Amino acid sequence: MNAREEVLGRIRTALGENRTAVPDVARDYRLTDGRDPGDPALLDLFVDRLEDYRASVLRCGPGEVAATVTRALDSGLGPGWSPGAVVVAPGLPEHWRPEDVAPDDGRPAVELAGSAASVTGVATAVAETGTLVLDGSSLSGRRALSLLPDCLVCVVEAAQVVGSVPEGLAVLDPVAPLTMISGPSATSDIELQRVEGVHGPRTLVVVLVA
Fold this sequence. Notes:
This protein is an alpha/beta fold and 210 residues long. The chain has one domain (29-209): NagB/RpiA/CoA transferase-like (Rossmann fold, 3-Layer(aba) Sandwich). 26% of the residues lie in helices and 22% in strands. A six-stranded parallel β-sheet has the order 1-12-7-4-2-3, with helices on both faces. Strands 8-5-6-9 form a four-stranded mixed β-sheet. The radius of gyration is 20 Å and the shape is globular.
């Protein structure tokens, strides 16, 4: 017996025969945005939400991804950054990677934290909330890849952008290690002074491929 079963067993014992049936969860909320993934209006809304959260967005065509990722790193790190200071998700397509930037090799977290930036793909993105969802796949990379380096560059394809949170959840594996990102990591103190980079990357740049 594990701890979960033990706790639930004690609850059942305490309730005895007076347990009531668990009612069905109401699912009468809006499940879809009504627009197809990648709809131009959704992309505009997605960009608006991201920029409102203080993320930067660079748009490009399918054949311009590597060059645009390089521009994204220039904006996040400054020109002249070292390829050795950047690590990319192992499943990121070759034609998306800047020259001489190596994929994640599973290095210890303390070494990964010394990287200046990381580049990943996403599992899906939600326009309504400006949220990027990473799922631990080879395209998204392990969770530490999106949390430890100070700058994160995410490549999002237009067809991955859906309108609402229920639509985004519908395409995800519920048991995957999901990381949901809405803007750079930030918090505010008691005087409402915003501080960025507290629990994750201080800089978020999104490359939107359409």
